[in-house]
């Protein structure tokens, strides 16, 4: 409701729009976020599949069983030549295609005249013809050959020549499939023949009677998959799926069908004809012809399910059908062109496998003399016209004058939107009213009216608020109709629609009655003043809602930085709007703890954790952050100073015990042997004595007094005045004594001395004589001086993000950089901070056991990365950019399992 009491009916979310769109209509919902179907998106003209218009030349021949290729675990692609006499390999490292087997015979030089040699030239051997190949999960390359009388098995781990595997009466192979259990399946003439993990043909189990007396009946073994699975004479191509399922393409009288079948013979409902699915979604509505012998399964890099790839018979285009676990298939409206395809077949990568040379490709086709990635080309096509009839909106006011319509929409060049309306006081009368054309929709200069929603789609510059003033929409009920049109390549998008009512009349409220005397002129004056009313009401709304700008929960996104300036808050560029609103609400707590340990933990946690994580509990109670099991840790380095050894001297043992350990000498400085003796007795070296000894040597003083000299010595006074700025440890010693004793008289009484001031006490070069003075000296050297190195230094320890999924190293680097900026901004000026990951702390002399210890794996030792072999997931080391354990020097090559028996041993 605005300042004048006008309200609106609206269509905003997906269900609002789809409730008025017929199922077979030309409209389709384009979600803004596929993970949240209720998110604000756009209603667009239905996208269509772009079909390449093939030339009049003859269609390509159907590929034979030798067509197609297969990848191994390292990304190398194996395929047969057109005549089947050689195996070619496309190396993932070099990108070259070479002969894998048989290797060419080395050239032999002709014998010299008069030398021994063959009487007749050697007859070349007839090349072996191979029919199909595949790579098993055990990393064996298996080739089926009728000419060889069975199988040829290559050990891709151990290398060497192939091992012949005879198979009597082997059927003519049309395709070989790799199964999950390590075996393979041979497809021939509508039959699927299974071979076990030992790569031997499966033999049916025949129970034999026992000659012994029957005993207790044993438990029946689990049913084994059948050795031969009949698929039917109409099965033309097959592909393997996980969990023992087979994707089957069937050629029937009315076209091609796709279905999923398991080894028990259970088949899901077939989907097809595929030609009809393509025809229904094609811009030209032409009848597509598909290849009945080319089928491949494509595994998306992210997400569930799989894609079935089918080629056009002309070899110019591929079609992708998205499948799910239930066996349902949906045609994806994507244009996948083929370049120089000559019926060479397809090859697809295994799930989770990525080629570093083609990171975006999941399938490849044989184009010319090389393999090319199967990529999607952007060729948008859509319906050209669409009509959308809105609901019958009720104002609950007879004779209501409907005010205006605001439409958040995207109107690209070549598209148009037309608005029509009709109004009446009864629903029956509304349906009898003719549609009235409204004025053209014009962009509203103020932008969207739904700023409180802050959807991503309205933040897009292409979406604008189009508005028009309703001319003669008078009645209790209103209905709108939108006529959309496009050029077939771009479609307008409808995001939200609002119809405002009733109209606040300046003519009725502010002008004398004489202006309403004539009906024609008053109608014009009413519409004319409504133009100004719309703009002035917007100003009145902003004035009435000015207090909302001061509340972080209701302030528009653009005003958050303005509010932060009032509270002296500085937002990082990577901080999202929700996190900024939370910081504004808890600004007092943030300022009160800035520079403290909870404040630094809070700043680092907010910078490290993604914006999707709720920050309210951290901001409300920053003291609870150290208790998070998987949270950021802060280590104050003075706490990492190692304690003194148990055998080191303590003041409670007395001065005599220390002198006994030091050989009776009281000197705290000396040669290397003396320093070793001091280290063993005290557990540390007196650094203040080392500093004082160096100053004395430069000043050429023979000795320093242990008490105030009597009479006064000018040389000692001059020495203190000249060296005081150069003796930081002496200054700390004097400050320590001043804080401990407060007055020099108390120190003299306890020490038995007569010093005139704390600033005249030098660092001791000998063991103090009294027990109190000796204890003060020990506390200063053992506790204060030893803690000076890590003082005012702290370390922020970052945890690695947990959970399954791919580790994004670039995202880790961005989040670490955000933590560095936050720590540098909020830390006290006199402190020094460093940022490390948890796995970096385990170094010699730095690992500690305590509440802030994190037992973490390095990036390359993460469980979700240990099973992957793709080099593209692990970036190479870059000096100064990558962390230890965050990269690799060479491509990983998984070793074979220890129980694997190679063909060469």
Give a verbal description of the structure:
The chain is of the alpha+beta class and 905 residues long. Among the domains are: 7-42 and 381-544, Jelly Rolls (Sandwich); 65-103 and 126-202 and 223-230, TolB, C-terminal domain (Neuraminidase, 6 Propeller); 242-379, no CATH class; 651-785, no CATH class. It is 21% helix and 23% strand. The protein has 20 helices and 40 strands. Strands 1, 2, 3, 31, 34, 35 and 37 form a seven-stranded antiparallel beta sheet that branches. Strands 20, 21, 22, 23 and 24 form a five-stranded antiparallel beta sheet that branches. Strands 29, 30, 32, 33 and 36 form a five-stranded antiparallel beta sheet that branches. Helix 10 (597-608) runs antiparallel to helix 19 (809-826) and helix 16 packs across helix 18. The two termini are 84 Å apart.
Question: What is shown here, in short?
Answer:
InterPro entries: Tail_protein_I, Unchr_phage_tail-like. With 905 residues, the protein is of the alpha+beta class.
Proper CATH architecture of the domain at 7-42 and 381-544: Sandwich
- Count of runs of 4 or more consecutive helical residues: 20
Helix content: 10-25%
CATH class of the domain at 7-42 and 381-544: Mainly Beta
Report the span from N to C terminus: 84 Å
Tell the overall outline. Answer: flat
**CATH homologous superfamily descriptor of the domain at 7-42 and 381-544:** Galactose-binding domain-like
Number of strands: 40
In round numbers, the mean pLDDT is 84
Could you name the CATH topology of the domain at 7-42 and 381-544?
A: Jelly Rolls
Secondary-structure class = alpha+beta
| Major beta-sheet overview | 7 strands, antiparallel
Gyration radius (Cα, Å) is 42 Å
């Amino acid at each position: 409701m605005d300042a004048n009491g006008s309200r609106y009916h609206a269509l905003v979310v997906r269900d609002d729009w789809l409730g008025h769109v017929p199922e077979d209509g030309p409209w389709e919902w384009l979600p803004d976020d596929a993970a949240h179907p209720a998110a604000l998106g756009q209603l667009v003209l239905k996208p269509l599949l772009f079909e390449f218009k093939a030339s009049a030349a003859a269609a390509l021949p159907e590929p034979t069983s030798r067509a197609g290729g297969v990848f191994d675990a390292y990304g190398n692609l194996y395929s047969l030549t057109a005549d089947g006499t050689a195996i070619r390999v496309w190396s993932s490292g070099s990108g070259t295609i070479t002969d894998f087997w048989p290797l060419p015979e080395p050239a032999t030089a002709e014998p010299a005249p008069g030398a021994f040699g063959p009487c007749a030239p050697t007859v070349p051997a007839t090349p072996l013809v191979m029919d199909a190949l595949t790579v098993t999960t055990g990393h064996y390359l298996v080739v089926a050959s009728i000419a060889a009388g069975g199988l040829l098995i290559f050990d891709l781990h151990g290398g060497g020549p192939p091992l012949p595997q005879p198979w009597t009466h082997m059927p003519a192979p049309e395709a070989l499939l790799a199964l999950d259990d390590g075996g393979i399946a041979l497809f021939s003439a509508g039959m699927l023949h299974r071979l076990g993990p030992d790569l031997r043909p499966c033999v049916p189990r025949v129970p034999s009677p026992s000659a012994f007396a029957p005993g207790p009946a044993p438990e029946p073994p689990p049913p084994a998959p059948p050795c031969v699975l009949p698929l039917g004479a109409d099965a033309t191509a097959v592909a393997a799926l996980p969990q023992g399922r087979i994707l089957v393409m069937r050629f029937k009288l009315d076209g091609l069908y796709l279905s999923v079948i398991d080894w028990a013979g259970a088949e899901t409902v077939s989907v097809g004809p595929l030609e009809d699915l393509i025809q229904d979604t094609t811009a030209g509505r032409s009848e597509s012809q598909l290849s009945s012998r080319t089928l491949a399964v494509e595994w998306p890099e992210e997400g569930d399910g799989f894609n079935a790839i089918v080629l056009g018979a002309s070899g110019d285009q591929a079609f992708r059908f998205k499948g799910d676990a239930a066996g349902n298939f949906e045609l994806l409206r994507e244009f996948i062109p083929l370049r120089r395809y000559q019926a060479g077949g397809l090859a697809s990568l295994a799930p989770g496998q990525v080629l570093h040379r083609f990171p975006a490709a999941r399938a490849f086709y044989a184009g010319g003399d090389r393999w090319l990635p199967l990529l999607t080309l952007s060729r948008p096509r859509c319906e050209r016209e669409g009509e959308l009839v809105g609901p019958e909106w009720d104002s609950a006011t007879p004779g209501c004058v409907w005010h205006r319509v605001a439409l958040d929409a995207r109107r690209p060049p070549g598209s148009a939107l037309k608005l029509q309306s009709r109004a009446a006081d009864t629903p029956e009368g509304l349906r009898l009213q003719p549609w009235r054309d409204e004025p053209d929709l014009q962009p509203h200069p103020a932008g969207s009216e739904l700023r409180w929603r802050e959807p991503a789609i309205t933040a897009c510059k292409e979406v604008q608020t189009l508005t028009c003033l309703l001319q003669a929409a008078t009645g209790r009920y209103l209905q709108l109709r939108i006529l959309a049109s496009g050029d077939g390549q771009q479609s307008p998008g409808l995001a939200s629609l609002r119809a405002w009512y009733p109209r606040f009349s300046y003519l009725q409220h502010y002008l004398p009655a004489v202006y309403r005397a004539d009906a024609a002129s008053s109608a014009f004056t009413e519409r004319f003043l409504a133009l100004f009313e719309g703009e002035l009401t917007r100003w009145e709304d902003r004035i009435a809602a000015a207090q909302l700008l001061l509340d972080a929960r209701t302030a528009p996104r653009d005003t958050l930085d303005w509010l932060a300036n009032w509270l002296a808050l500085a937002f990082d560029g990577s901080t999202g709007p929700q996190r900024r609103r939370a910081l504004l609400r808890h600004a007092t707590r943030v300022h009160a703890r800035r520079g403290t340990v909870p404040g630094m933990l809070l700043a680092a946690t907010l910078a490290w954790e993604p914006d999707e994580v709720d920050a309210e509990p951290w901001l409300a109670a920053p003291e609870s952050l150290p208790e998070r099991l998987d949270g950021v840790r802060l280590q104050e380095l003075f706490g990492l100073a190692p304690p003194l050894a148990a055998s080191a001297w303590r003041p409670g043992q007395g001065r005599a015990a220390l002198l006994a350990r030091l050989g009776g000498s009281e000197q705290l400085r000396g040669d290397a042997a003396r320093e070793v003796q001091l280290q063993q007795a005290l557990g540390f070296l007196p650094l203040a004595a080392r500093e004082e000894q160096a100053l004395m040597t430069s000043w050429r003083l023979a000795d320093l007094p242990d008490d105030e000299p009597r009479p006064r010595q000018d040389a000692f006074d001059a020495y203190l005045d000249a060296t005081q700025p150069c003796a930081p440890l002496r200054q700390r010693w004097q400050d320590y004594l001043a804080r401990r004793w407060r007055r020099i008289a108390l120190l003299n009484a306890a020490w038995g001395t007569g010093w005139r001031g704390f600033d005249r006490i030098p660092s001791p070069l000998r063991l103090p004589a009294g027990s109190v003075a000796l204890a003060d000296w020990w506390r200063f050297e053992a506790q204060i001086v030893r803690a000076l190195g890590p003082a005012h230094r702290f370390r922020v320890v970052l945890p690695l993000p947990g959970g399954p999924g791919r580790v994004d190293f670039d995202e880790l680097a961005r989040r670490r950089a955000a933590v560095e900026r936050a720590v540098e901004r909020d830390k006290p000026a006199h402190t020094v901070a460093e940022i490390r990951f948890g796995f970096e702390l385990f170094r010699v002399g730095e690992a500690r056991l305590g509440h802030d210890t994190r037992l973490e794996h390095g990036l390359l030792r993460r469980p979700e990365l240990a099973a992957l072999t793709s080099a593209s997931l692990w970036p190479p080391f870059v000096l100064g950019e990558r962390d230890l354990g965050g990269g690799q020097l060479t491509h990983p090559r998984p070793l074979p399992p220890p129980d694997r028996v190679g063909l060469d041993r």
